[in-house]
Amino acid sequence: MATVTKSIDVHVPISQAYNQWTQFETFPNFMGGVEEIKQLDDRNLHWKVNVGGQHREFDAEITEQNPEERVAWKSTDGKTHSGVVTFHKLAPEETRVTVQLDWEPEGLAEKAGALVGVDDHQVSSDLDRFKSFIENRTAETGAWRGEVPREG
What we know:
This protein is an alpha+beta fold. The protein contains 3 helices and 7 strands.
């Protein structure tokens, strides 16, 4: 299992950073390799990605969502992965966003990429693009403030 943990500080209030992150369908604007995400309901997402020329589709479930604190998910089919994004208020207009991803690399290319840190670089680049995306707006593109309690 491969793991990446990265953080970035964004110059927006925690509510704005969190609200934007709940707009999953905007992820292709700042996440490399993500072609499309459809939010099926409060808990379920369908992803289309292209990583290293490999097209994949999979479903994921939001396993926990607490406004301005965290969003956690896990795949329910296809690619085995899970993750959590946490939000930390540093100041009224400054928020730290931390992403932790865990996944099982598939195939020789993904395993080699994980060994040399390609995935670390991708997550860092995605966070840099998120920072630019959110800081260059006057407001988030939407918000979902509901909660998804952790089961069990």
